[in-house]
């Protein structure tokens, strides 16, 4: 398996995120078995196992990064001073199970993301 390609760059030199590889959902009866994980335990060839496990790890990592961006944008929206129901940083931190300092950083990150997505 070759190394993953870097995401194409957007204006401003930041990488543009691509959609993660689709995850194959497991049948309900397979998820009841704690040893069953995306059928990896049935792959006997170590090369094939490494390839599939790597694909899953990259997909989960990309999904986690994308989810974090949505967290940041939601935090920024909740902290928007223009909202009548604006939440203080501490309340956002409590909801997201973050520290207040981390919430402030995520709010700023979310604002940057939303600025980058606004057409000029």
Word description of this protein:
It is elongated and about 55 Å long. The chain contains 4 helices and no strands. Helix content is 52%, strand content 0%.
- List the secondary-structure elements in sequence, H or E: HHHH
| Annotation, overall tally of beta strands | 0
Mean of residue pLDDT? 81
Tell me the number of helical segments per DSSP (H or I, 4 or more residues long): 4
Which outline best applies?
elongated
| Structural classification | mainly alpha
- Rg from C-alpha positions? 19 Å
As residue ranges, the low-confidence spans are 1-11
Helix content: 40-55%
The biggest sheet, with number of strands, parallel, antiparallel or mixed sense and barrel status, is: none
Distance between the termini: 40 Å
Report the β-strand fraction as a percent range. under 5%
């Amino acid at each position: 398996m070759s190394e993953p390609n870097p995401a194409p760059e957007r204006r401003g030199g930041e990488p543009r995120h691509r959609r993660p590889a689709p995850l194959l959902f497991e049948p309900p009866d397979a998820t009841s078995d704690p040893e069953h994980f995306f059928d990896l335990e049935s792959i006997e060839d170590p090369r094939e196992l490494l390839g599939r496990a790597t694909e899953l790890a990259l997909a989960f990592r990309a999904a986690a990064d994308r989810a974090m961006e949505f967290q940041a944008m939601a935090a920024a929206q909740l902290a928007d001073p223009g909202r009548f129901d604006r939440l203080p940083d501490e309340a956002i931190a409590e909801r997201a199970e973050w520290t207040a300092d981390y919430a402030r950083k995520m709010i700023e990150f979310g604002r940057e993301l939303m600025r980058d997505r606004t057409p000029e």
